[in-house]
Amino acid sequence: MKANKIMTIRLLLSLVILFGFTSCSKKTDSKGGSRATGWKVNDKKGGFQYASKFKKQATGPGLVMVEGGTFTMGKVADDPMHDWNNTPNQQHVMSFYMDETEVTNMMYMEYLDWLKRVYPPDQENYKNIYEGASPDTLVWRNRLGYNETMTNNYLRHPAYAEYPVVGVNWIQATEFSIWRTDRVNEKILEEQKYLKKDAKVTDVTGEKVFSTEAYLATPSTAMGGDDKIVLKRGQGRGAIKPTAAPAAGGAGATNTQGNSPKNVYAQRSSGLILPEYRLPTEAEWEYAAAADVGQREYNVYKGQKKYPWSGSYTRSGKRQVRGDQLANFKQGKGDYGGIAGWSDDGADITNKVKSYPPNDFGLYDMAGNVAEWVADVYRPIVDDEANDFNYYRGNVYEKNKIGDDGKVELVTAETQKYDTLPNGKIIAKNFPGQIAQVPVDEQETYLRQNFDKSNNKGYRDGDKQSTRYFKFGASEDGDEKGKLKDNQRMYDSPMHNVSTDSLGNMVRKYDKSNKRSTLVNDNVRVYKGGSWRDRAYWLDPAQRRYFPQDMATDYIGFRCAMSRVGAKADKKKRPRN
Q1: Alpha-carbon distance 33 to 30, whole Å?
Q2: How many angstroms separate the CA atoms of 54 and 258, rounded?
Q3: Among 1, 118, 301, 564, which is 20 to 30 Å from 323 by CA?
Q4: How far apart are CA 400 and CA 215, in angstroms?
Q5: Higher pLDDT, 575 or 167
Q6: Ramachandran region of residue 398, left (φ > 0), alpha (ψ -120 to 50) or beta?
Q7: Cα torsion at 345, 349, 354, 356 (round to 10°)?
Q8: CA 544-547-550 angle, 5° bins
């Protein structure tokens, strides 16, 4: 009997001790103890600081989430020409965000207004910035058509505010995306009290401009190094959004004597700063436009859709709007919008965004209205043997330029560079306040297996390394002995050139050769989707065309995308929904 009592007491003591250890373990975890060292994370006295309360990436302005997945890229419903241009191949894209609508005139006008205020065109240092970003309004002109109303009004008149912007070339669309990234992150940091309130309006000048990458690299030099604008976070951290939390510290944070950290800038580890806005890749755009998710059952798609919507027709079958067109496109010769009193698609040129139903991802006008630029350099094939994950042709890897003082070098009004395009238009290559970029070199490429040079636009595309003319040891661009002749190049496109004479006058040199075999080169980009000028054939998301990146039209616009960091999806999967 006594032995049983002793055993019972020992058992109870063992349970108490075990419970005590378990409680201590939970208590340590709740206080942010590191699983690596057991040290306290986010200790107010200092040490390792991390955004441990981060939940998920916040959705940027104008964006909707597109959950990634696998799909057949390049599979067109109609291919009467049996074009090599659309060989079906299996691809996978990661989850990303995309603009709900095309970028509108009002959105682009906000960009132009900002450029005009910050970089006044009447100042010599900035005279080409605003003009270089302005859309080409002359794209509306036609030798045998009267379109001066659109030439004079389409971009700026409020009647067209919510219509998609056109006349923007690929380079301008890319620069808009960079500007948008900086303005969105600037607002986020202002709300979290890392930047002075309203400085983005009241204090911004050409010498004091916020750049996301410059802030992350050297916060103290951002906004012209004005410490009255770029704030160090101390006490009073302010309200934090539920989707993201700033780090209590970060790289370069200063330890303090007190109850809260001070001298802290936002870092990538803060979880606040959004990834960059950019043009979507061709694979992303096609995947988002097809929206096969609406035909999914379990882990398979139930057939291939011909258009971004279900069904094989361009007209709605719903009772209330039966017969209405589901996109803005050209129905036939001379038929841009139907007859008076009964309009097929409600438009003759472009139409207001959101005028037609969205696809199953919630994206509007992924067919019709305007075709859209994507990021890729055009080649006739998509090389799925080389890559079938986040496919993209156009990578040019660069790195931050380091000055003589060992610090990153920021662009100034004096060091800003411009490009003179083949058509004579002058466009800024970078802007004051940004970090100067240079191509990656042997320090980054030596003995690497995944890439070996900065410019990868022509990788496995039929260039000289892929042809019988390849000469071992010749330079990438060819030298006197190894240089390819024009008739040996797979992509033998015209070589127009613009230069200036000794007096500064522009000299345009046209390539008048009649032996050129193609229009394809490293400066032509893919554009996707049909437009108000196109027949229904081009509404198929898999169709692809190309156009010079420095030229604009009245039927090509664009929308932005943003990569998603973290989980592929927000919700757990269920069998059907």
Answers
A1: 7
A2: 25
A3: 301
A4: 13
A5: 167
A6: beta
A7: 20
A8: 145
| 453 backbone φψ class: left, alpha, beta (φ>0; ψ -120 to 50) | beta
Are 51 and 32 spatial neighbours (Cβ–Cβ below 8 Å)?
Answer: no
In DSSP notation, 191-211 reads HTTSB-TTHHHHT-BTTB---
- Euclidean distance between CA atoms 3 and 446, whole angstroms: 74
8 A C-beta contact, residue 163 and residue 173: no
Q: How would residue 341 be classed by pLDDT, with cut points 50, 70 and 90?
A: confident
What pLDDT is stored for residue 147 in this prediction?
95
Enumerate the β-bridge partners of residue 69.
93
The mean per-residue pLDDT over the stretch 243-247 comes to 40
- Name 262's bridge partners: 254
**Exposure of 253 in the CB half-sphere (CA atoms within 13 A):** 29
Residue 544 has a CB neighbour count (10 Å cut-off) of 25
The percent of residues above 70 in pLDDT, for the chain, comes to 83
Residue partners of 301: CB distance under 8 A and separation at least 6: 71, 292, 295
Lowest mean pLDDT among 26-35, 125-134, 538-547: 26-35
CB of 216 within 8 A of CB of 273? Answer: yes
Residue that is written with structure tokens 């050409």 in the block: 206
Do 248 and 265 touch, CB atoms closer than 8 A? no
* Tokens standing for residue 502: 């000794």
Q: Give the model's pLDDT for residue 154.
A: 98
What DSSP designation does 58 have?
A: P
Contact between 170 and 556 under an 8 Å Cβ cutoff? The reply is no
- Tell me the one-letter amino acid at 265: Y
Residue-wise pLDDT tens digits, 371-409? 999 999 999 989 999 999 999 999 999 999 998 888 899
